[in-house]
Amino acid sequence: MPFLIDDAGIGMEDSQLICAYLDSLDGKPRFHDPLRASDWDYLRLEYAARNMCEGICVWGREMGRPDNERSPTVLAHEVARARRMADFFEDRVTDPLMQGVPCMARLILAVALDMAKRGFGDLTNGRPRLAAWMRSISNLPSMQRTVPS
C-alpha cells in the first residue's frame, strides 16, 4: 500500500489520495480537474478503470501466495472480471472523455492493461479499439519514461 508523508508530517495512505495530493501541489491540477468531480459520465469511466485495476491487483496478490494457498476461484473470478472490463472499454475508449489530454481514467486504464499484460495476458488481443488506444497512450513521452524494467 502506498504511503506518503507530506511536509507537515501528515501521512496519507491510498494511491487515489496520494495522486490527488501530488496533482494539487502546484495549484493547477492536471489529472483531478475539479470540474470532473460531478461529471458522472467521466466518473463512471474512471471508477470502471479503478475496478479493473483493483481486480488485476487482487489476481497479482493471489499469484504471489504459495501454490498450495492460491484460490483457483479467486484467480478465475479476477481474470473473468478483467476480460469483462476490457470488453466494456473496447466500446468506451473512443469516447471523447478517453481521448485528448491525460486524465486519471486514462492513466488507470493504461496501468491496468499493462499490469494484466505482465501477468495473465494481453487484454487488448481481439479488441482492436482498445489495442489502438493503448498503443497511442503508450507512446506518450511520460509513459515511455516510466516503463518498468
What does this structure look like?
By secondary structure, the chain is mainly alpha-helical. It has 2 domains: 1-32, no CATH class; 38-145, Glutathione S-transferase Yfyf (Class Pi), Chain A, domain 2. Helix content is 56%, strand content 4%. The protein has helices spanning 15-24, 40-63, 72-90, 104-118, 128-138, 141-145; strands spanning 3-5, 11-13. The protein has a two-stranded antiparallel sheet with strand order 1-2. Strand 1 (3-5) and strand 2 (11-13) form a beta hairpin. Helix 2 packs antiparallel against helix 3 and helix 2 packs parallel to helix 4 (104-118). The chain is globular, with a radius of gyration of 16 Å. The model has no long low-confidence stretch (mean pLDDT 89).
Strand % is: under 5%
Encode the helix/strand succession as letters. Answer: EEHHHHHH
Structural class: mainly alpha
Q: State the helicity in percent bands.
A: 55-70%
User: Rounded to an integer, what's the Rg over CA atoms?
Assistant: 16 Å
Number of domains: 2
Major sheet summary line: 2 strands, antiparallel
Shape: globular
Order of strands in the sheet with the most strands? 1-2
Total helical elements: 6
Task: Output the CATH class name of the largest domain.
Answer: Mainly Alpha
| N-C termini distance | 21 Å
CATH fold field value of the largest domain: Glutathione S-transferase Yfyf (Class Pi), Chain A, domain 2
Low-confidence stretches: none
Instruction: Tell me the total number of β-strands.
Output: 2
Mean of residue pLDDT values: 89
Q: Using the 3D structure, state the CATH architecture of the largest domain.
A: Up-down Bundle
